[in-house]
Each structure stands twice: as C-alpha cells, then as structure tokens.
Amino acid sequence: MMNAIGIVKQMRPGDDVDAACGKCKDVRTHAIIAVNAQGKIERVQCRTCQGTHNYRNPVKETKRTAASGTRSGSTGRAGSSPVIPTGPTRVYSPQQSFQAGDQISHPTFGVGYVTEVRATKIDVKFGRETKTLIHAG
Ligand SMILES: [Zn+2]
What we know:
Layout: E1 16-21, E2 26-35, E3 41-46, E4 52-54, E5 86-91, E6 102-106, E7 110-118, E8 121-126, E9 129-134
Bound molecules: zinc ion.
The site of zinc ion (ZN) has 8 residues, from loops.
C-alpha cells in the first residue's frame, strides 16, 4: 500500500478520519486511537458501531480526496491502439511509404499517426477518427 508521505496530513489521536469499518461494511467516521512514529494511523474506533480495529484506508470511497480526479471522462483513452507514435511528423503523400507509429501531417485531416499498415493502405488515427489512406507500401 502506498501511503505517500506528504499527501497524508498529520493525524493525531482523537482526530476524526474516514476509514473502512469491517463491522459496518462501509466507510465511516472513526476516532483515531493510535498513530505510529511516521504519523500513520494504526488503530481507530468507529463512531457508528464503537468497534476498534486497525486502520484501513478507504480506497473504494475517496470522497475527501478531491485533489486526485477532477478530470471528466471525456477523453476516451482506454482501448486505443497499442501503437505509440514516434519520430518526427512527416507530410503525407501517397508516393511515400509509411510504417506503424509514423506521425504524419495530412492537408485535410491534420496530424495523425499510423496505426496499421496493410500493403498499399495505411490506417491513420486523426484524433478520434481513423482514416484509411494509400501509400507506396
Ligand atoms: Zn463500524
């Protein structure tokens, strides 16, 4: 578990902390009972069921860590091609020969990169769209 020092603020016994409670099966407010030398919370008491247990980071519910993810999922990166564009951008021409990963500049579609080569055709990803262009092969 990576509990990066510097992100976790200094906690002291008596402070409240959100923790996963095994009895409540949920993230509850807990009172800190014990903190180790590194300032890491060791034991907490659930304010809901009063049970004491070792502190567990509430990983599945991170409502208090607002710093991490404000990006909305508009840029669909997942599931894209494993091809990573490399090298300088080349101007597209059907007389040129291209390889997967080549970055090309097209007069109509703009800058993209080659995701697949099939004989005299190349698939080129321009932003979210993939166009099939011809090349010298
Ligand atoms: Zn509880």
